[in-house]
Amino acid sequence: MYRAQYSQEKKGLSPCCMAKAPRVTIQDVAALSGLSICTVSRALRRLPNVSESAQLKVADAATKLGYKASSAASRLAGGTTGSVAIIAPTATAWFFAQAVEAAEEVFADSGLDTVLISLRNTPGVHRKVFGDLDALSQRVDGVLLLNIALSDAEVEALASSGLAVASVGMHSVPWDNVGIDNEEAAWNATNHLLGLGHWDLAVLSGREPGERSVATATDRLNGFRRALAEHDLTVDPDLVMDAGSSIEGGRRAMTELIENRRMPSAIFAGCDETAFGALMALREFGLSAPKNVSIIGIDDHQMSWFLGLSTMAQPVADQGAFAANLLVEGLQHPGRPTAPASHVLDTKLIERKSTRRKR
Amino acid sequence: MYRAQYSQEKKGLSPCCMAKAPRVTIQDVAALSGLSICTVSRALRRLPNVSESAQLKVADAATKLGYKASSAASRLAGGTTGSVAIIAPTATAWFFAQAVEAAEEVFADSGLDTVLISLRNTPGVHRKVFGDLDALSQRVDGVLLLNIALSDAEVEALASSGLAVASVGMHSVPWDNVGIDNEEAAWNATNHLLGLGHWDLAVLSGREPGERSVATATDRLNGFRRALAEHDLTVDPDLVMDAGSSIEGGRRAMTELIENRRMPSAIFAGCDETAFGALMALREFGLSAPKNVSIIGIDDHQMSWFLGLSTMAQPVADQGAFAANLLVEGLQHPGRPTAPASHVLDTKLIERKSTRRKR
DNA sequence: GCTAAATTTGTAAGCGCTTACACTCTTCTT
DNA sequence: AAGAAGAGTGTAAGCGCTTACAAATTTAGC
User: Of A111, A320, B7, B277, which residue has the fewest beta carbons closer than 10 angstroms?
Assistant: First the structure.
């Protein structure tokens, strides 16, 4: 704790103003309202079996005193922590930054603290987090998962951990999920390329090289494959790259493609940032889109318009906010065992100049 | 809490495997080690006056049991929460996303939970957070401030709140801070423009229109002004725009400049994202850099290389990690009232093709 | 070798809240 | 009109930890 000069100097002065206001406890509220602690506790949490008059008296006293329950005490006594965790593969990628901010806003507005957990694309961190769900459930009431690749065992463990769960971009999970139809989005993107006469296609998949694949990435890859298959085209394995979903990954994959494989006629990038990286790599070789290759991504990143990148736009903040709301709802109605729902948001093709008809 | 089908179905089965492992408490550790709770508590927190043999026995028992202290109980009893807050003006901007991730890593590695608080560039949220420091200090042990514009009263309140504090990009605050020399960076950037023969300069300042200015933004503006003054140039008020530090803000400011003011010979943008926005706006008018105007930013954003944007590079993740480490240290040595230090990291001019000699 | 001082350990009282349970009133039954 | 059922409230026992303070042990002093 900070105790340097400022507070030191003050020490000699009126100690009254330094003294931290003693905590307003539930006792104070009980005393002021003339009711028992127990009733106050129930009134504050809007539990049933509290008369309206009591409800009012308590609310009154509480605001008058500026009472705020101690989350620590509440938690310890078996209540809730008043905080939720957002778990993301990384916090820096555009998608996650957007989704995190949107979700955080929802949580904050519901009076919940947001604990941020970035897996940093590191298996070790992943294991640490999901290997000890007890530790997690001790500090938060619920978890918002953003595009996390979970094993069946992990899903199972989470579902029975007592934690409320909601997710973005996940699949067949026993909790609420919101996302886009990734396979369809990829299928549409690929068909856009196909429709422009390109048939020699490469894909920069969102899979992290050497890691468990997130549903998002495999779905998009499947959509790509299906589109090709429907046109009786085969996928050249040389043109399937695992690029992850970072600019750097896209750049690396594209460089590899150019140097050690071959140039396709068009490229479907798993996300816009990957596409940015690919564009960078192209430029380094004196190439560009759509001159030497057409390229399309998914996201509609803020910079995509500027770079003229064609893309399948998806609502990112909406997904984060939506899922956050579902989580909050789940938290507020613990008993309600509604069947987990999967909400699918729309995507939209945005044609820009990075894709054009094959000459 | 999630209680849908999965757990429902299980209900009939062996209830043993559904039963959550009962919490390992300090009692269990005490029992196993043959010592009292009190001694265990002290040993665990490495307080003085614990014999080595006890220390060992406790550590042994704790690991054997996989004991982790309940943060709620600990907090309630007057201990620490084991979590810290990161407060940022927004979580989506590149700078903050980078810094947050770097800091989160440091905190996680120190066993601390990270509570993310985004002010969303909203005065209301700002007030809510800094107006009730008690609520904050109840849930976290320390706070990491990222470029927050604080009033004197808020600084004072924070310093005497009992919270450990560290910050990035702040000024003359009574706690550890790390940042770059913003005035110098701006001065260098401006001199780069001046050195290329440009004397009719505009600035897209990082100040949010209509809000308290963060130190970072005003410092950069001052550096710009000083550079001009040193060359006996006056600043045309028409060419000073408050653009905030977003792409959108840069675009808006640049559009305003083109439409309602006049084109300068060169532009100093408060940060790279602002510059991106400016480049977008330019393109919308059929203009471009460096053809119609030279432009330089500050940051060295991941995309800047690609866009050929000249800039003053600053180490972003380093700043976040550094400040986080200072905070952790402050947390670990509560008593030590070292004088708050300000650490200044280097910046570097990176010339790219968005700036060129005036013709 | 015996007391004073220092060191290590244990006892027990909370921290502020939730909740099982007991208790008092009302309101319906039949 | 007597008893059952229910609504509203209170009592008290923790939750798992920290921390005065007391007790027990060791070390030092002369």
Answer: A111
Chain centroid, CA B15 distance in Å: 46
Query: 3-class SS at A113?
Result: strand
B51 strand C contact, CB < 7 Å: yes
Long-range contacts of A257-260 (CB under 8 A, 24+ apart): A257/A202, A258/A282, A258/A285, A258/A287
Measured between CA atoms, how close is B319 to chain A, in angstroms?
15
Indicate if CB(B73) is under 7 A from strand D.
yes
My answer on whether A306 and A186 are in the same domain is yes
Burial pattern B190-228, b for ≥16 Cβ within 10 A else e, equals bbbbbebebeebbbbbbbbeebeebbbbbbbbebbbbbb
Give the end-to-end CA distance of chain A in Å, rounded to a whole number.
67
Strand D-contacting residues in A 37-76, CB cut-off 7 angstroms: 37-39, 42, 48-51, 53-54, 73, 76
10 Å Cβ neighbour count for B189? 27
- Asked if the model's pLDDT at residue A206 lies above 80, the reply is yes
Residue B41, phi then psi, degrees to nearest 5: -55, -45
The mean pLDDT of A295-299, rounded to a whole number, is: 97
| Number of residues that this document lists for chain A | 359
Which CATH number belongs to the domain containing residue B119 in this structure?
3.40.50.2300
Give, in Å, how far the C1' of C29 lies from the CA of A49.
Answer: 22
Inside any domain, residue B354: no
Least confident of B170-179, B256-265, B336-345: B336-345
A79 in contact with nucleic chain C (CB within 7 A)? yes
Q: Are residues A193 and A272 in the same domain?
A: yes
Co-location of B42 and B99 in the same domain: no
The whole-number Å distance from A46's CA to C18's C1' is: 14
Residues B156 and B189 in one domain: no
Sign of CA dihedral B7, B10, B12, B15: negative
Average pLDDT over residues A157-162: 88
Number of domains in chain A: 3
Q: Which residues contact A333 (CB under 8 A, 6 or more apart)?
A: none
Give the closest of B4, B132, B283 to A338, CB-based: B4
Is strand C in 7 Å reach of the CB of B46? no
The whole-number pLDDT of residue A71 equals 82
d(CA B343, C1' D20) / Å: 41
Nearest CA in chain B to A334: B1
- For residue range A29-77, list pLDDT tens digits in order: 999 999 999 999 999 999 888 999 999 999 999 999 989 888 889 889 9
Q: Do A2 and B163 touch (CB under 8 A)?
A: yes
Give, for A167, the enclosing helix (H) or strand (E). Answer: strand A164-168
pLDDT band at residue A3 using 50, 70 and 90 as cut-offs = very low
Q: Which nt has its C1' nearest the CA of A29?
A: C16
Predicted confidence (pLDDT) at residue A333 exceeds the cutoff of 50? yes
Domain that holds residue B169: 83-179+316-345
Of A18, A116, A302, Cβ closest to residue B114: A116
Q: Is A122 on the interface with B (CB under 8 A)?
A: no
Q: Average model confidence (pLDDT) for chain B?
A: 89
pLDDT digits (tens, 9 = 90+) for B56-69: 999 999 999 988 88
Q: Show contacts of A104-109: CB within 8 Å, 24+ apart.
A: A104/A324, A104/B91, A104/B116, A104/B117, A104/B118, A105/A321, A105/A324, A105/B118, A105/B120, A106/A320, A106/A321, A106/A324, A106/A325, A106/A328, A107/A324, A107/A328, A108/B117, A108/B118, A108/B125
Write down the pLDDT at residue A6: 29
